[in-house]
Write the structure tokens for this entry.
Amino acid sequence: MPLVVAHGLPKSGSTFLYYVAREAGALANGASHYRSKEAFFGKDQMPDYIHHLTDDIVERILRQLPEGAFFVLKTHGRLSPSLRARVAAGEVLALTSFRDPRDTVISMLDSGVRDRERGADRPFAEMTSVKDTLQPLKFSLTIAREWMTCERVLQVPYYLIATEQNFTIRLLVRHLGLDFFWRALTAHFSINREQRITEFNKGIADRFIDDLPPGDTLRLTQDFAAEIADIDCATAMWMSRYGYRMLYSHLAGLREKRLAALSFRIN
């Protein structure tokens, strides 16, 4: 301990949070993430991303991790009952991020374009239309709910990541017990952010309204009505707790106004 598990709904800013947590851990360890990982687990013995985070893997990491050292890994996978208990008990630190499903769709499609251009073999490469994203997104939202309902998991709405990145960094390092690194990390991630953090598309909220065809937006609004309501509820609650209730109200109000205008134009 501390093992830090960085979860997030795909395309919800989870890569940004993972890199912040990883850099904070490196500062605490006094060595880079890769040097520390090799010292803890041996060369090429522990990946940075583990989709199926089994109990055996968690136990192995905790057993091999030196006292007081940090190791941060990323996952989009499920939260097992055993890991849930460890997180709730404070034996493992965890965080998650979540985003409006409609916004997630447009980012999934963007990743598909990039993956096909560079020949990357990832599921996003198979996504060429909104229809291709629906089943994977439904499943990912089910997994996200597991993490969003777990005690002691740091909850980070995408609205917060997109608009208040410096506060988000401080919130995260405080969760890790590394608050004294927040100024250095804020400066580090403010420089050439797009180059430092892969797949972080400038932190723009509600891109789907402009970037998706209006018909697709309205269909997604209907098909994901329950999930959108859940994400909105969680976003409102956590942004209020973090002191950003008015910001959430402004962003959500602006989004709904734009959606109403979009619906009016179609009808």
Notes: Strands lie at 3-7, 71-75, 93-98, 154-157. The mean pLDDT is 90.
